[in-house]
Design brief:
With about 160 residues, the chain is α+β, with helices and mostly antiparallel strands. It has three helices and five strands. The mean pLDDT is about 85.
Length: about 160
């Protein structure tokens, strides 16, 4: 455990918490999808004329929610398979790294994960943000080492696990 302020919480703990967030998100999406599908096909949205588009709109919403649900389930499946390597302060940052950064005096953490970009959680009293390979920040961090700064941002790498 090489993060400068890391004491009890580990990368594995953070990953488990992020999985729980994804599971909760999936449950909410499933409930919303069921409601939208009911609205699209239920008696309450039966067309009352040629300009009544409630059922069509509900069907579009259900389709979009179904797509969001598929993405969330895919993200959770990626996290279930996610087995990040251990890093220490002498390694270059790579996929699966938990990176501690100093952002103009503020400590923040980034988890380079295969999915779940944008998820956040409290980690040691600081914010941990998941970044995925499509993220510009992910791409900038890969290959950096402890003490390196990013050119495009005011971040300095201060820890790595």
């Amino acid at each position: 455990m090489q993060l400068s302020i890391l004491t009890r919480v580990t990368k594995a703990d953070a990953i488990e918490e992020l999985k729980k967030q994804l599971q909760t998100s999936i449950a909410v999406l499933k409930s919303a999808l069921a409601d939208s599908e009911e609205s699209a096909t239920g008696d309450e949205t039966k067309s009352e004329g040629k300009y009544d588009t409630r059922a069509v709109e509900a069907a579009y919403l259900a389709q979009a929610q179904d797509e969001q649900l598929a993405l969330a389930e895919e993200g959770l499946a990626s996290f279930e398979r996610f087995s990040p390597p251990a890093y220490d302060i002498s390694n270059e940052i790579g996929p699966g790294a938990l990176v501690e950064c100093d952002d103009e005096g503020e400590i923040c953490f980034y988890l380079l994960a295969p999915a779940g970009g944008g998820l956040t959680m409290d980690f040691l009293g600081c914010e941990l943000t998941v970044i995925s390979p499509k993220s510009e920040l992910y791409q900038e961090l890969v290959g950096k080492k402890m003490g390196d700064s990013l050119e495009s941002r005011s971040l300095m790498v201060t820890g790595l696990e």
